[in-house]
Specification:
mainly alpha; about 280 residues; single chain; 2 strands; ABC transporter involved in vitamin B12 uptake, BtuC
Length: about 280
């Protein structure tokens, strides 16, 4: 029987995996979002309001939260089309802070005092969602749509010349990534049964980005690997007491110096599964 402590850790892994996947989907089109903590916050508050104030079951509340965040993601995606690189990252960072500030003063969801009363969900429920979305992303990676997304990532001008609608592809990626982040937020809210705007700030978005960069930014399973490392390794280093975070930082630097593409990539998966690379 798994202890309550480790159950909480593995719940965090599932939630962080979804957050990292939300960044990965957007990153697949060459766009880096530092505002996915904002989409997570939207999902957390919408799902929580539906289950607490309107007494909805958790599953439909999560689906509606994902839909709402997807619409917001599409709206954010339009102005983001004009921006690239660091300018896009800063713009999405501003969006995330705007969402946090909004919920800080929005009284129907508790404002700065936070929101509580959500029904608690089990770790198995979290992993049903996490597993389903991981499988969905893995299936997407084998589709023509994913090839089009990677084409936009590699050379947007060339993708336009061969007839791809890069505008729809990039905005669609923003919408899908926002929906996944919102489901992540809804699960977080119902796992901890209390949320406040500080849960969805800049540091949350950085955790998502760091997980996907560390685990592997070219394959969906990299999100799971990165989430496992970010959640479990600091816990395993607790014996170092005050030095554990410094030691974890050193490990991160070493990994990124030796494997710039992240721990997991397509070539490594091919070797592990004894398949020949194309």
């Amino acid at each position: 029987m798994i202890s309550t402590y480790y159950a909480g850790l593995f719940a965090d892994v599932g939630i962080l995996t979804l957050g990292a996947l939300s960044v990965y989907i957007i990153l697949a089109t060459g766009q880096l979002s530092l505002g996915n903590g904002g989409f997570m916050g939207i999902g957390a508050y919408v799902a929580s309001y539906l289950t607490v104030a309107l007494h909805w079951p958790v599953t439909p509340a999560l689906l509606v939260a994902g839909l709402v965040a997807a619409v917001v993601g599409v709206i954010v995606g339009f102005p983001a089309l004009r921006l690239k690189g660091i300018y896009l990252a800063i713009a999405t960072l501003g969006f995330g802070e705007m969402v946090r500030s909004f919920f800080l003063v929005f009284e129907p969801t508790g404002g700065s005092g936070g929101y509580r009363g959500m029904p608690h969900i089990s770790i198995s429920y979290i992993w049903v969602w996490a597993g389903a979305i991981v499988l969905l992303v893995l299936a997407l990676e084998r589709s023509r749509l994913w090839l089009e997304m990677r084409a936009v990532h590699d050379d947007e001008t060339a993708a336009n010349l061969v007839g791809l609608n890069t505008t729809v592809i990039k905005i669609g990626a923003f919408g899908l990534g926002a929906a996944v982040a919102a489901i992540c937020g809804g699960l977080f809210a119902h796992q901890y049964v209390y949320i406040e705007p500080g849960n969805f700030g800049f540091d949350r978005s950085i955790d998502f980005v760091l997980a996907i960069i560390l685990g592997g930014s070219t394959v969906g399973l990299g999100a799971l690997v990165g989430a496992l490392l970010l959640v479990l390794v600091p816990e395993w280093l607790r014996f170092l007491v005050d030095w554990r975070l410094a030691a974890f930082g050193v490990l991160l630097i070493l990994v990124l110096l030796t494997r710039r593409q992240g721990i997991l990539d397509r070539a490594l998966i091919m070797r592990l599964t004894f398949r020949k690379t194309a």
